[in-house]
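Q: Joint fold for the lines below.
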Amino acid sequence: MSLLSITDLTVHLPTGAGIVHAVNGVSFAIAEGETVGLIGESGCGKSTLGRALLRLSPVTRGGIELDGQDITHLNQRDLTTVRPKIQMIFQDNAGALNPRHSVGKSIGQPLRLAGWSAKDAKRRVHDLLVQVGLPETAYDRYPNEFSGGQRQRIGIARAIALNPKLIVCDEPVSALDPSVRAQIINLLNDLQARLGISYLFISHDLAVVEHIADRVVVMYLGQIMEQGARDTFWKQPLHPYTRALLAAVPSADPDAVRVKSVLQGELPSNLNLPAGCPFQARCPMATQQCREETPALRRAGSGNDVACHLVAPDTGATASHTVKETDRCPAP
Amino acid sequence: MSRLVLDVRNLSTAVSTRKGDLTIVDDLNLKVRRGETVAIIGESGCGKSLAALSLMRLLPKGRARIRDGEIRLEGRDLATLPERDIVRLRGRDIAMIFQDPMSALNPVMTIGRQLEEAIRAHVDLKGEALKARCIELLRLVHIPDPETRLKEYPHRLSGGMCQRIAIAMAIACDPRLLIADEPTTALDVTIQAQVLQLLQELKARTGMALLIITHDFGVVAEMADRVVVMYAGRKVEEGVVRDIFRDPRHPYTQGLLALTLHPGQSRAARLPEIRGVVPPYEARGAGCPFADRCDKVLDVCRRQAPATIALTVDHEVACWAAELESERYVVAVDN
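A: Joint structure:
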């Protein structure tokens, strides 16, 4: 049984300019001890989705089930019993910590809220500091005395304080230098091996997701375009958008071809969703059908689930033909 | 070999603090030839950005100053030029774009006004001709519907669009050298690809030289002809891109390259790390600043900072261990 499953999750946020269609009917599941990577461009709704799992964004439609319990409509009081199971770490690790609280107080707060005594909480915090690789002297110091990587460790210590089952990691390493990024990813992997935590790892850095995720979900305009297990996902991505994302990553090989096809245009506004496929405006292969009908997520021959009219369901031959076509993006 | 556009010699830049002056850029030597793309790579706090600001003479007054060295831009020494002469060069001969495109633009001025300002600083254009030049520039950076965009304010545009506008302003007067300080770090990977492609296209069209500052070896591989690796304010290695990727000699360069994630890497292996962090400037002694993080550290590393030596004509490194390893004939570089 999966630890978390969301069904047709929809988050629409009313703003002054109209309704922002942030998440539109997303369904997936996360198993115990599994890491699911969620990738997409800024504004595709991945952070809103992550926040909705913690009930920090209002759910418009659909359901969230955590550990066998439907938490979609729990009230604030009942949510306090669920929150220890699901925690979050953020990209902006400075903004996530109260600058006036000592590190010990910040990490100990969830424990105190869960009813731990001050003495037990303090002992636990010291233990947590060691677990995330911080000196115990950090207890009485303040967030501004630490580097970005160390602050991210503080955020991780706080997130694991109550032995959560799932941590939503929202771009946890995007603001960090490469050497520190590797340290934090290794720490997250170590903690998972030791504590059996599941991660929803939200990131726009494909290389990081490839390294850390067991399964990958690609979002565009609040909808899933493609998802699959790590073995199949990277080997044979089928959706034109996934392929464009992968092609955009600069290859760390000076001999690679420098002139390549680049996906043109930007993510359209989600105030008014386009008819048909969400990606059709930027897709080099869009047909009349794409402009009229929204494609459903179907299992393709590669083993990935793909939402694209042009990818044939469950037959490898036509699918690989389609793949070739996506290499040709129109000139600017 | 083509002509030098930029020739920086022994540049040192210091920041004044309560505890006295701290040297942030330490004895930097850097050459950029015509039409060439040079990348400076290093982590935060390595002095890359301060080096770039020194070249532009945009250091915050009273807080940072060029202490020593020469910055020769096509012969003239920018380090000692009076402010009013610098103003004449900035934008015309040397221009810069920044990491955060949103804050590089003025939020209360239309795109058109800002572009006009950038053009009129050096070229006497008026009325229709000026407007036509603005539209031409926006077309060059592939802004759709330029006539409408001219009347809009920056907040209406995405980060990628703002970076394009910033690039349009920077190239408005055909500079010889464009400095791009982490131009794509704040952008999505798809938009990054677009902006990098745009920079290459403009370079090919105008023949300007490009000095790109980044912490991403992917960007280096994609863009650069030569790489300068900086650590703690010093150049630790320099070479042709292919040499640096194939045969990095400094342990810091090797570490950074190992950190670059490749597609298809297996997960079973832990990611390689460079332990520790860049030491704070006030805590640096006489030795090599990388010594505490280095796996190949020798006794001499802690006593004395290594000099820059040339391994080949275009591959330099500053490392005692690399010097020992190198069986090739080496000579000390004197600048």
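Q: Anything notable?
A: The two ends of chain A are 48 Å apart (CA to CA). Residues 316-332 of chain A have pLDDT under 50 and may be disordered.
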